[in-house]
């Protein structure tokens, strides 16, 4: 299954659809995609830079709809087909009863066990072996000591290996920066300041979308509301950062283009819109919110987020055949469930509660906003450590396995949603370990 | 969401009585206490939720007076260094009787901000900030002595306190901490510290420019609820576990240990300062709500102690915290006489002081090396109370069955 096929059938039409939605909103509301701010407005914004959350928005936010929500995206993925695919090809795939109908290669549990070998039961883990009952001499103290050594030697590869077993709270910010190769050089800070200037000088339509998203999601979150201002500072700059366009070289997506008025179709009058090529969707700000827990200096927070985005998060909302792409993750999730929890899978399917319909939103957001923050950070440690998002699919399956007993008793999609509505008490690492290493396969 | 009623109604074997003479346990109002305590006969086993003269700790002017006196005593007995451990409350002057002392201090520190607080009101009412003496000239005119105002509803009595201008901020916002301390007796002093609590955030960004905007400076939920920015969904609260983790990821575990150990110091010293003044009636216990402010140097300050901390829940999470807190309070009060009296932990409560410091089970050493008490406290740590209670009551039952 090649990139080009997916690009033409899936990603291309999806992109056209998003752009159409954005353009029509623009026309309906008679708001330009971009405009230069008058000087008075620029001054005001500069003054309020650190407290944009308190600002009353200039435009009525209720007029704006998010361009799309995860469930819209899911519908697109469900309808993906490979025109080259012949029915006789793969026997096992023919029996696939999930929503995803694209036969990509995904790992099975034996392969996952090998891939995630450091999560095995014989190795120590933060998130398991640092609980109150376990004496710190057994694992935690030594692990912290090794972490400090890795940091003092500034060894990025060692850090990536180390963090597979989790990061101590006090070292996490530095370890992530080391793994992502972020060091705040003066030119980085200058670059951020330049982006900030762009924000001050120009107003973009997507700014209202960002504003609305933050207000609807992160600001309403019991724990992330405190970081509201940081989220604006990061996301408004992010949408103007043309260096982000670089990631499209390895993505199957292409940035949406806009044409100067009257010059539709003429390439020399095309601009990327928004400048970073990424149109935010409902919940986008949740990629940034957990990072506020670790980084407090705006330009550093910004760099970390940008790097996380171009390495990982972009794969969660674009169509590709990459093993960490959302399509593969969905397929991995469904396959794991159907293969190792067949009774549960069939039951849920029977009652009209296809499991992917529930777990999709978790994976698209990398579980941000669903798990408790300390658990989420332990999970994202492993994303960095293994340089893969597959763990999201495995965790989603593990959650279903954990609540299987209750799920077997429900008789509707709504009831299934209710059983899985609250993940805030889950302990991520034990769940993953049980699912991968302690269940008979 | 009435947590107290729910907890009391659900307690096995407990029945609500309407008749005045019949109760064994009373979670009373301070006003009832004031009017009735002195002429109410209580059997040995009866328990009531306040100490007769709790205001020695909970009314701002008395607390300050008692703390100052205790500090002087410590200095005499143990020297300046030991007395300095009582420097956790901002310089405070009772008004109007200490007005002249206040003016002296005021003139020594031009330009700083002061906060005026009514002694007996709660929920942030009547509080204002000022920088100029002009703003409080009225106080000079009120020459009534404060001595004959002990605990009647007085003419308004205030304290002027140095305002902490460099509070620790999270997300640009100011916050204070609400911590729960349960005192079972003063003579000897027996006090328990609850693991859970919360940080209450101001809804607006902190700035010294707008001292008239009380919404910025007062973190009290009651005041925040009236702020135009307030969105009820937010709740503006963080559980202490979250707060502790946030600090640890920013400053490292040692700094956090030091901070929490400094807070233990506040609880213990404040209780010690009123130990000899409060009438330690064996029928009485009291659940205090301590309000602590952290500054940018990670130093904790005592703002005040509440004798009747709010038990209304503002959210589901808050409801669970408060019901657990009350359940565990009742476990410690132990009307059912199940405990041996040697327990160091009951549910979410850790025994903090038992006529002397209480050591941790694992004998951990004080990390700060500052000579702070090594206390058996776990504020902001994991609260696996249900599990602990199960184990505790199971072993207690086991002990009862086997005769000694």
From TrEMBL, chain A:
Pfam families: RabGAP-TBC (PF00566)
Source organism of the structure: Balaenoptera acutorostrata (Common minke whale)
Cited SUPFAM superfamilies: Ypt/Rab-GAP domain of gyp1p
SMART domains tied to this protein: TBC (SM00164)
InterPro entries named in the record: Rab-GAP-TBC_dom, Rab-GAP_TBC_sf, TBC1D19
PANTHER family for this protein: TBC1 DOMAIN FAMILY MEMBER 19 (PTHR16110:SF1)
Domain Rab-GAP TBC residues, every copy: 166-387
Protein's name in the database: TBC1 domain family member 19 isoform X4
Automatic annotation (TrEMBL), chain B:
Record's keyword annotation contains Iron-sulfur: no
Keyword ATP-binding included in the entry's annotation: yes
GO process annotations (BP): microtubule cytoskeleton organization
One Gene Ontology term, aspect cellular component: ciliary basal body
Keywords of this entry: ATP-binding, Ligase, Nucleotide-binding
Gene Ontology molecular function terms on file: ATP binding; tubulin binding; tubulin-glutamic acid ligase activity
Assigned protein family: Belongs to the tubulin--tyrosine ligase family.
The protein's name in its UniProt record: Tubulin--tyrosine ligase-like protein 9
